[in-house]
Request: fold
Amino acid sequence: MKFFKLTALALASSLVLAGCGSDGGSSSTTVSNNNGSTIPAKPPVNNNLSDLQQAKGLIDTAKQFILDNKAIKDAYEGASEILTEQQQARVSLTFDIAEGLREYMQEKSITRLDAADIIYLRDNGDLKEIIDKDLASDFYWDRFYDNKLTPSDDFLATLDANGKFKLSGTTLVNSEDYDYSYNPLTNNIDSIATKDSFKITYDKFENTLASNSSTDNFKGRFGFNNITIGSDAKAVVFSSLSQGATVNAQFSDKVLINDEFDLDEVNAAGITVEKAVIKLGDVKLKANDSTIKASDLELAFLDMSHKRADGSLVVRTLPSTIKLTGQLIKEKPKTDMTISLNAVANENDIKNVIKVTQDGDIEEAAGKFVGIEIVMSLNGQVARKNTNITTSIPIDIQANLKRMSRKDVELQGLSANVDGKKLYVTGKTILDTTYNVSCKCTQLNITQNNAAVNLKFDVNNDFVKQDTSTGKIADITVNGKVLGQLLENNGTVSAKFVDNSFVPLG
Reply:
């Protein structure tokens, strides 16, 4: 996998993750030094409430939390995707064209291509490997792209002696996409053609993810000021204040990072990635009714290897860090949400505990485990279904998870603000020997003030009942005193209190 592909993956991953959440400027959650060690504080106790009021308050807040989640699900049901299938194809082709031009110029030792050059080479067939692609796939089908570029006068691609590629200007793309599939009924190959025509404008697109000199410590950049794909209602616009991503990689030996660079080929030569870090800042995607922002993304990974008896190397690339702050703004349903995600694995654990087997599988050394900690916050608002845009559901969730042993993953703290009232949750999940969730393995302790309810779930996320004859799931307690029960009968969950009052939860 070439560095360009890794960096494009970082861009895509960051925007997908950012799309899970909301407004970058309004988040009230701070990740301490961005190091994955913040546990949400437990909310203060309201001692003005009686014990029974505290017990009922816990259930009322939990019920509102459930209703809010259902309202959000209903609001998003049928909502349009951020990118249509056509837009996704256009985005992919936009980056493929840029990389294809760079590879062509490097292969032919060309330093400059303007619009007239590209039109001449296109018409004379010399650019066929760039604008026509024959991509094979598994089983009975393959895709063939017939893409023709018609660049405007401002279109210009340059490549310097150090491998820095720059691209600017506008080009029209006329694309024909053919799907081929084997039809067992007719014993023929069927084809379906999809045609598209759209413009791409590159503003200061730059790719320095190649080098003409061998190095064991590579530094590169991939980015742009602006890329506009299509026009009017179908337009997809990428923009970046920081010109995209930086890549820093440390190798076990010197390697030439050029058009031929490929991780699989380098690994076959016995060279591994000691550590690589991709950082991406201030990238924005606007399409349809959505705006996604990704900032402060950091992806770090390293190689683990096993040398076989025949001298060949089996290599697995493992992530060690994912850090992201992102935002989603959407018109329908009205959404303004921020996500902050920080997942960090101990690199020394990875190096000393993880082993790659002869077959290329990954396993932890006996009695040892890789420590992992995840910090996440989600803040913002989502409109309720069938209401005006001023009515919204506020979202304020902070959580910390930590792997405590080979089998135990703890929810060390989750704080959820529901209509101004706080729920606080701790818990534990037990993994089986294959690191899947095992039966009767998840436990959650949900509290508010001094009230608490302890829940257990099986592998299917169904309640593990304390008493199947009565449908009792758990006691509702305040300072250890039982003031009610959580019950499930005929698929309905409700709370029954000592004063014989009931609160249905769903």
Notes: Residues 51-76 form the longest helix (26 residues). The first strand starts at residue 112 and ends at 114.
